[in-house]
Amino acid sequence: MKEGNIDVINMFIPNVSWLFIDSNWNVYSNLECASFDPWWKSGNIIRNSIEEIIKRYEANKCYGLRVASEITVKELVEKYGDTYCQKLYESKGDLLSYYLNRFCKGNYNKK
């Protein structure tokens, strides 16, 4: 684990964890930065056992969770920050969620 990365994943962990299941039986976590994009998918109820899905979630096996646990705030800001940006974000978490998902989207197929 890189120094400084703990603040990225920890800022998105909810007080209570649960899983979302979409209409195709894909399973996603309720991390506040997560979306229904493929890099956040923990498994599929039809193809994977519940035990396997839970283990994948707990071990940060899906790409989005792995990135969130490995990347630092500094790395995200250096890559995507714009000192001239005029956009307003509700919170630091909103902005970092945007950066994290942007990173995942740009790198998911390169994994």
Topology (elements, then pairings):
Elements: H1 6-10, E1 19-21, E2 26-29, E3 41-44, H2 50-58, H3 63-70, H4 73-80, H5 92-107
Antiparallel strand pairs: 1-2, 2-3
Helix pairs in contact: 4-5
Q: Would you mind describing this structure in some detail?
A:
By secondary structure, the protein is mainly alpha-helical. The protein has one domain. It contains five helices and three strands. It has a three-stranded antiparallel β-sheet, with helices on one face. α4 packs across α5 (92-107).
Biggest sheet record: 3 strands, antiparallel
Please report the total strand number as a whole number.
3
Instruction: Using the CA coordinates, give the radius of gyration.
Output: 14 Å
- Form type: elongated
Give a nutshell description of this structure.
The chain has 111 residues and is mainly alpha-helical.
Give keywords.
5 helices; three-stranded antiparallel β-sheet; mainly alpha; 3 strands; single chain
